[in-house]
Design goal:
6 helices; alpha+beta; globular
């Protein structure tokens, strides 16, 4: 997790259309740079979601409630209708033990001044947070294909570098073709004079708890790779004094059939849960053996170690992929924020351990 670079956007609106949302941002001329995520603004967020649902248009930022330029998020689905996601763990500052996609904030102004720049945030973060090896040829690392050859070359080089620096592995690329689903949202970015800087089709969400953030999502389906053919290693962490500090999170292989219609949690039937362990200097993706008491999302005691509870990143991506029950991310996030205001946490009561 490298340095965050943000600036405050004081004018932004979202408009609902038949197929998705149109988000308009106005970048200020004089940018107030900050290096931390924006604080939560949950009351403003609840009102903003309600206006979008009832009126079809809403502010998502104003002078009292600024928002950031887009972050980038990425996730891929296998041809057997499964996917790999991370679990934030009990040590996370927010959203403990929730399941998440792979993404992060921009690290330079250049990354938020074009559609290509925002796309690069997503594939950089994916490379930094997840390494997937081919099970029968573990010297090869899965690299999602890209239509731009220069971008693919950059992605390959950076992905192999991350594997070397974070796992100590010298790998070769295994390029996998990807079928991309057409995004439903549109992002338009203007300057203060209402001159358009760039426009792009991309799936979007914006949240106001546990942080305030605008996020751009990229996802696809591997056309010729199943989940049985890979071994995942979570590689999220950061560098300090030249040393990589591993967060050592879990990687979950999840079946879409298990989670249909269950945006507020369920027990997975046959998940595979991995965690990176080292034998000397050699990393191993070990299957996690859980023991009681089982701790689930936000530290709640639960009845099974396999409680799946997606955060907003994963909800948005599952909805964009067409998974039943996740289509209306605005309604789901509004429900979560309303519950948060009342000191509650939306999780199926059947999953919570009593007593």
């Amino acid at each position: 997790m490298a340095e965050v670079l943000q600036f405050k956007i004081y004018k932004a609106v979202a408009e609902r259309s038949d197929n998705g949302n149109l988000v308009k941002l106005w970048y200020p001329k004089d940018k107030e740079i900050t290096y931390t995520p924006f604080p939560p603004r949950i009351e403003f967020g609840i009102e903003s979601y309600e206006r979008l649902m009832t009126d079809g248009r809403t502010e998502i930022a104003n002078n009292e409630n600024p928002i950031n330029p887009p972050s980038g998020v990425e996730l891929y689905f296998f041809n057997d209708d499964k996917f790999v996601c991370g679990n934030r763990g009990l040590g996370a500052r927010t959203q403990k033990k929730t399941h998440t996609a792979y993404g992060g904030y921009p690290q330079s102004l250049d990354e938020v001044l074009s559609a290509e720049g925002i796309r690069s945030i997503a594939y950089r973060e994916y490379a930094e947070e997840i390494v997937m090896l081919i099970r029968d040829a573990p010297s090869y690392m899965v690299i999602p294909n890209m239509t731009d050859e220069n971008r693919l070359k950059e992605r390959v080089e950076y992905s192999l570098r991350c594997a070397r620096e974070r796992l100590g592995l010298e790998l070769k690329p295994h390029i996998v073709d990807v079928e991309f689903k057409e995004p439903v949202d549109t992002l338009e970015v203007y300057n203060e004079n209402d001159e358009i800087l760039f426009k792009t089709k991309v799936n979007l969400d914006w949240i106001f708890h546990p942080v305030t953030s605008l996020e751009a999502f990229y996802s696809g389906r591997f056309t010729n790779l199943s989940s049985e053919e890979i071994i995942p290693f979570d590689t999220e962490g950061d560098f300090a004094n030249g040393k990589f500090n591993r967060l050592n999170l879990e990687s979950w292989v999840v079946d879409l059939e298990d989670i249909k219609g269950k945006p507020f949690g369920c027990i997975l039937k046959n998940p595979r849960v991995y965690q990176t362990q080292f034998e000397g200097s050699t990393p191993q993706a070990a299957i996690v053996n859980f023991s009681e008491p089982y701790i689930g999302p936000e530290g709640i005691a639960v009845v099974s170690p396999y409680v799946f509870y997606p955060n907003q990143l994963l909800v948005r991506l599952l909805g964009a992929h067409g998974v039943q029950g996740f289509e209306n991310w605005v309604k789901i996030q509004h429900q979560k924020d309303k519950a948060q205001m009342d000191g509650k946490f939306l999780i199926d009561e059947a999953l919570v351990r009593k007593g």
